[in-house]
Design brief:
By secondary structure, the chain is an alpha/beta fold. Helix content is 45%, strand content 17%. The chain has eleven helices and eight strands. The chain has an eight-stranded mixed β-sheet with strand order 1-2-4-3-5-6-7-8, with helices on both faces. It is globular and about 60 Å long.
């Protein structure tokens, strides 16, 4: 039933669009912005207890942070959609062995953080608060965590940020949005209403929000890693970063998928941090 659910919901929203395209778009955005999972399990919570934990407040939402003290520069880890800070466990252990200061956060509506809705722009503002609180030197972002990282640095241009690592990150919002529309099977009325909704609420059309284009303005040294077998964010998105992010290195992997959880990937990251 689960694999048919998106098309069923899409059909329902398509029907609504013939009576009110604005309301149909509102429902579609709510679905798009509401994580179905990502809360921490008991096992994950036990591991995360090894960190010092605190909250920052973004507007009326409490954002969970985790801190592992080290002697070297501070690295922030930003997870992706329907995940949480625990996804970094193996990399955290590698970084601890190298004595880095490590900070991770749970995105809004994920992990132990508050909120019910999520988008990369809100996430970028939370990243900004964490960066300033912990004096972050390097940010490692996976998937939409990488997208939010680019949004943040493009907007704030903090000189304290020296390095960025983008793992399987979307190069543009319009691609993510189009894949969502195709998955749901939305009709043209809904698609057009969605564009108008974003223009009204974010003052730009979806195609404006392009991390690959934004990366042109970023001077921090970058490492972009993307897998040819990534079934969530196409490999071509990685190539778009390669083309646009001038001060970056690009690494192709083959067979690690979207998660990129592997010893070779971690070694690439450690080499980059040590360079």
């Amino acid at each position: 039933m689960n694999k048919y659910l998106p098309k069923i919901l899409g059909f329902f929203i398509n029907c609504i669009s013939y009576f009110s395209s604005k309301y149909a778009a509102k429902l579609a955005i709510k679905l798009f912005s509401t994580p179905r999972k990502g809360k921490t399990t008991t096992t994950e919570l036990e591991y995360l207890k090894t960190a010092s934990q605190d909250y920052i407040k973004f507007e009326n939402t409490l954002i969970q942070t985790y801190y592992w003290k080290g002697e070297k520069e501070t690295i922030l880890l930003a997870h992706g959609w329907e995940s949480n800070a625990y996804r970094w466990k193996d990399l955290i252990e590698e970084l601890k062995n190298k004595n880095y200061n490590i900070v991770a956060l749970d995105a809004p509506a994920h992990g132990k953080s508050g909120g019910k809705t999520f988008n990369a722009l809100i996430y970028s503002e939370c990243i900004n608060l964490v960066v300033k609180k912990f004096n972050v030197h390097t940010i490692i972002g996976h998937s939409v965590g990488g997208m939010a990282t680019v949004f943040f640095q493009h907007k704030y241009q903090l000189k304290s940020i020296k390095k960025l690592v983008l793992l399987g990150s979307p190069a543009n919002f319009i691609g993510v949005f189009n894949r969502y529309e195709n998955m749901m099977g939305y009709n043209k009325r809904v698609s057009e209403a969605l564009k108008n909704y974003i223009l009204k609420h974010f003052n730009q059309l979806p195609e404006y929000f392009s991390p690959a284009n934004f990366s042109k303005t970023i001077t921090a040294k970058g490492l972009v890693i993307h897998d040819t077998k990534d079934k969530i964010i196409p490999y071509n998105d990685g190539l778009m970063f390669k083309q646009n992010y001038n001060n970056s290195s690009f690494i192709t992997t083959n067979g690690f998928g979207h998660g990129l959880k592997s010893a070779p990937v971690y070694q690439h990251i450690l080499n980059f941090l040590n360079a």
